[in-house]
Write a structure and sequence with these properties.
The structure is a homotrimer of 302-residue chains. The first copy, chain A, is mainly beta. Helices cover 11% and strands 30% of the residues of chain A. In chain A, strands 7-10-13-16-21-24-27-30-33-35-36 form an eleven-stranded mixed β-sheet, with no helix packed on it. A nine-stranded parallel β-sheet of chain A has the order 8-11-14-17-22-25-28-31-34, with no helix packed on it. The longest helix of chain A is centred in the first third of the chain and has 12 residues.
Chain lengths: 302, 302, 302
């Protein structure tokens, strides 16, 4: 697929600050990592690199996304390079990539999906093969992949992305003992409320609340194979990476970052903007903005 | 849904010690956590709380489950509160919740479930959409959710609950090297025997034995995203919480509690009633009743 | 199922060094662990055991796989034992087990599998119920179990084994921030290239690359519930056990062994033949052949 520089200019719109070089016949046809750049790659230079000028001059690509600190040198001119100047080259590249190179299935519900008659499905929703949806609400523009299970009482916002095999809104893991000492489930009848633009990774499980609701804030991104237990209140723009276990009834504020395979104990409060390290075992509250690592987790000193 | 106090009295039966207050017209219509109690909530007070009397007096609910230590004060009388006195209020609440508020699908096998002709399915079993069952035995009253895979040679007891996406009885992870140094699987032809009233969480995987059987005792509860490898012998009333990895050939006795994201090495013995801490990495036998934590796990001193 | 000793001799072929004892009417009909051996078990003795001669004499089995160090004593003769002498008894047992005792489904694509018209499926491939395959390549002899999701752009080699619920080639977990500070996905348009004879465990997730490819080398074996993130380059004969998290963009060389529930940070290099311990949290490069354990992981001194 050829994308002309004029198409790129049109797409970037107000984000484009300036264009250097002649772009009449130029086009790109791929994105690539730095080892695989060719003449038709849309290349880019991360703003924080020191030797940006040099990287651009040595790139095999004809067209690059760059920031305002770049000079259009005579070398670049001789190379007939086209520079698209934007504030944030990597962000611009991501937008170009998502628009021109990422294929998405058309909205629609696959005929094999089993959907409760009481479910409320918004507009432009995609639900893939072999997914099973109970009495749930799914907001417009959301994408539910294949083999997903969504239970009764789940409310999913707009533009969410739920990957294959995720299990959303199952009964939580809470037990009482009966007269003979055998455990039986405490009723798990709360809901699960998911905001807008939330991503839930493949085979990740998020439990409904016991008596109150489990809540996941907007723009939060959860990776594959995570377990989020009942009654958690998770804020917005939280990042939960792969294989994380979040036990029940925590409060996790906005902009927290939880690294892979970390464990959060239950009934703790993790303040805004905290970072929980890889494999950290969090057993206490973490004040706003702190980074905790280790088993048991402790504040990381710089 | 309105449930009259008379219905509750009838349901509680012998568990009810005494009723305080007039209950002729009273009813409840919800259960709630302490922040969301309203007039029609069935509220309860945990027996071990110190200020129980005060909690009950300030509850917005008209009807509460309480223990025998409560006095029916003039304040409670003025509030027209109804107190249902039981030995264990939380246990009673759980039973009321499970009976009146938890919806369960009717027994039956969804038409899309793929079941081997040689499978033996008990009475009142539910098997959900897109589950695939080999030559297995499933005991009466068991509930198998959607997208579950049960392989040949699995025996599941009565009243078990297997959540969506679980993979039960797959081949274990054991390899030999061939003449060229490449690994190939050691045959995994043992069975998997699961007792009665066992819960297996969403996307959890339990492998069949290699040459002997993997065994899971009755009333054991396993949460989401756990991996139980081949040849484990796990006792009764064991609690295995989220994201736990149990490697092969362990013996785990009754009443053990394994906290989230713990790892058990393989070929170890964990004594009756032990507690394994969150994120603990267990590399040795643990004597009966001890609590071990950390990486590597060590006995926790009080 | 009876398997005569003559059948075993025929199957072992060049691997058989010598036969002791008379085998005309002898047969075996099972494999078993040491606690369950009976007269018709094909028993074996691991070469490294010290008291091999004694073990063989006290085995209830009539037929055993043994190595060349064994003597056919008068006791064995009186017991009418048949010894099949091979270089590696456990390897031979595994081959016999896989050939005679492991049931495999016949090749074929289950009618419920949803396969893209652009997928390229080799010969003798099995694809189980409710699996969903995009524009992918699946090599001859590979076995894809049920409820598996394989996305566009995945290339799977020959004789691979992908267990139930695995999610292969999903979009990786990489985000940029937009102008309002909300995260959006960096395009994940690389491929996922899997070699020959690779095993991928149940509910394991392996992400496609962002701009380059994720690569899994031949004969590599990955257990259940692992997360392998985008851009990893994993070598041959690597063992990744249960619940392991491999973050993005690592290089993991041949013959590495990663124990359960370990975490690998991302952008690290793990040298050939390394061992990563159970629950280890790897944040740095590991030189060839070393064993690292702990949180954070450090070199294990002998």
């Amino acid at each position: 697929m050829k994308i002309t520089i004029l198409q790129l200019i049109d797409f970037l719109g107000d984000n484009l600050i300036r264009v250097y070089g002649s772009c009449e016949d130029a086009y790109i046809d791929n994105l690539a990592d730095s080892n695989h750049v060719n003449e038709y790659t849309l290349d880019w230079v991360i703003s924080k690199k020191n030797n940006k000028q040099e990287i651009i001059e040595s790139s095999k690509a004809k067209c690059l996304l760059v920031d305002e600190t770049i000079e259009y040198t005579s070398i670049l001119n001789e190379q007939s390079k086209v520079l698209l100047v934007v504030k944030n080259p990597k962000q611009a590249l991501a937008k170009v990539g998502n628009h021109f190179f990422v294929k998405k299935p058309d909205p629609g519900i696959h005929p094999t999906a089993v959907i409760s008659k009481s479910a409320k499905i918004g507009e432009n929703v995609y639900i893939g093969p072999y997914s099973v949806v109970g009495d749930a609400v799914i907001g417009s523009g959301s994408h539910i992949d294949s083999n997903v299970r969504i239970y009764d009482g789940v409310v999913i916002g707009k533009d969410c992305d739920i990957k294959a095999g995720a299990v959303i809104g199952g009964a939580g893991f809470g037990f009482e003992k009966d007269e003979e000492g055998n455990r039986f489930r405490f009723p798990q009848i709360g809901g699960l409320i998911i905001g807008d633009d939330v991503e839930i990774g493949a085979n990740t499980c998020i439990d409904r609340g016991a008596l109150s609701d489990t809540i996941i804030g907007s723009h939060t991104k959860i990776n594959n194979l995570c377990h989020i237990a009942h009654n958690n209140k998770i804020g917005c723009n939280v990042i939960i990476t792969g294989c994380v276990n979040v036990s029940g009834s925590n409060i996790i504020e906005d902009d927290v970052w939880i690294a892979p395979n970390a464990s959060i104990r239950g009934y703790v409060h993790i303040g805004k903007g905290c970072v929980v390290g890889m494999g950290a075992v969090v057993t206490k509250d973490i004040p706003e903005g702190e980074t905790w690592v280790g088993n048991p987790a402790r504040k990381m000193e710089k």
